[in-house]
């Protein structure tokens, strides 16, 4: 079966995604992508994923900057989308002027089955992982909130986070414009980060021409649930929670 290179990339993306159908509601986790294509100048993509279910727009993942192998670890919930609806994942490369559409994956929600079209091999691969939840993740990071954060960037678009666990980059959160007490809704999942590795959250202030690094929070990963860890950042502070199992 022939399919375009973009569909090959998206097939790999789908292999790292998960869909759950329960009580006529849909939850989808966008894990990661592999070997996404460079732009016309040979630069690695700043990739993000838009998620739709039926007629509902679930939003998008944070942008994973300058990497062909992004890890997003983002969860989307569709309480009004159920069996019979179509789910679509759009993969984009963020650009200063116009974002570049890299391709789509589409899947029909069918109880224990996934509907597929012959051209979308990514959908077939998605079937193989339909029952692999993020309970397999070793480290789960959530509940990230800033307190009295002050950026120095001219034309500030608000603070955001970059998250690592060990050598794995989890991606970035959304930015919160005109908000010195942001609550970031993104959650991050790391499948290959273990005990005693370093969980790192960098706080950045997004600017029109360049971003400013406000500070970094780190924790040595330990077993259990750790709630509302607080660290000092840019004359303010931030808190976050994580679980390692």
List the helices and strands and how they pair.
Blueprint: H1 5-15, E1 17-22, E2 25-32, E3 47-53, E4 56-60, E5 71-78, E6 86-93, E7 100-110, E8 113-115, H2 121-128, E9 139-147, E10 158-165, E11 168-172, E12 183-184, E13 188-190, E14 198-206, E15 212-220, E16 224-233, E17 236-244
Antiparallel strand pairs: 1-2, 2-5, 3-4, 3-6, 6-7, 7-8, 9-12, 9-13, 9-17, 10-11, 10-14, 14-15, 16-17
Q: Which keywords apply here?
A:
single chain, 245 residues, mainly beta, five-stranded antiparallel β-sheet, 17 strands, disordered N terminus
Give your account of this protein's structure.
With 245 residues, this protein is mainly β. The protein has two helices and 17 strands. The strands form four sheets. A five-stranded antiparallel beta sheet has the order 4-3-6-7-8. Strands 9, 12, 13, 16 and 17 form a five-stranded antiparallel beta sheet that branches. It is globular and about 45 Å long.
The level of helicity is: under 10%
Strand order, biggest sheet?
4-3-6-7-8
**Uncertain segments:** 1-24, 111-136
* Count of beta strands: 17
Order of helices and strands: HEEEEEEEEHEEEEEEEEE
Q: Separation of termini?
A: 41 Å
Structural class of the helices, strands and pairings?
Answer: mainly beta
Mean pLDDT: 74
From the spread of the alpha carbons, the general shape counts as globular
Strand content: over 45%
Helical stretch tally: 2
Main beta sheet strand tally, sense and closure: 5 strands, antiparallel
Rounded to the nearest angstrom, the radius of gyration is 18 Å
């Amino acid at each position: 079966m022939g399919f375009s290179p973009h569909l090959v990339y998206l097939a790999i993306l789908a292999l790292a995604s998960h869909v759950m159908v329960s009580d006529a509601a849909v939850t989808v986790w966008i894990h990661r992508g592999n070997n996404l294509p460079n732009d016309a100048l040979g630069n690695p993509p700043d990739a993000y994923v838009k998620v739709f279910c039926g007629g509902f727009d679930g939003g998008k993942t944070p942008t994973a900057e300058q990497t062909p192998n992004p890890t997003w670890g983002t969860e989307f919930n569709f309480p009004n989308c159920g069996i019979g609806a179509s789910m679509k994942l759009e993969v984009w490369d963020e650009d200063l002027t116009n974002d570049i559409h890299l391709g789509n994956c589409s899947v029909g929600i069918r109880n224990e089955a996934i509907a597929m079209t012959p051209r979308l091999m990514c959908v077939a691969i998605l079937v193989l992982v339909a029952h692999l939840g993020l309970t397999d993740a070793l480290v789960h990071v959530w509940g990230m909130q800033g307190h009295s954060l002050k950026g120095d960037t001219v034309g500030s678009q608000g603070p955001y986070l970059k998250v690592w666990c060990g050598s794995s980059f989890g991606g970035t959160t959304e930015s919160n414009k005109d908000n010195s007490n942001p609550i970031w809704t993104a959650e991050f999942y790391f499948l290959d980060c273990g005990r005693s590795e370093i969980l790192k959250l960098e706080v950045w202030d997004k600017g029109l021409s360049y971003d400013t690094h406000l500070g970094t929070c780190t924790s040595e990963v330990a077993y259990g649930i750790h709630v509302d860890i607080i660290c000092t950042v840019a004359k303010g502070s931030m808190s976050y929670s994580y679980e390692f199992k």
